[in-house]
Amino acid sequence: MSSPKFARPPPEINIAKISFPAPRVLLVTISRPKALNAIDISGSWELASLFDWFDEEASLWVAIVTGEGRTFSAGADLKGMHEIDPTS
Hints:
Belongs to the enoyl-CoA hydratase/isomerase family. This protein is α+β, with helices and mostly antiparallel strands. It has one helix and three strands. It has one helix at 41-56, and strands at 16-19, 25-30, 62-67. It is flat, with a radius of gyration of 14 Å.
């Protein structure tokens, strides 16, 4: 399969691996298996950026989200929640 052509490249993210397994399909594999794919604060921002890009990319119609390892996702990674400033 040839590389897909996009209006602009996808954002670089660390929390997940992205691929394009078929025309018009984005595959997002959350890749934090040691943390049961829990999503930390920076990861949530990365995923938001990725899905903003996906929403603007007319050549993509479907996004599939999966998790690496034995778990899809344990949910939010609460370890970093103390870093959030509730006044902002």
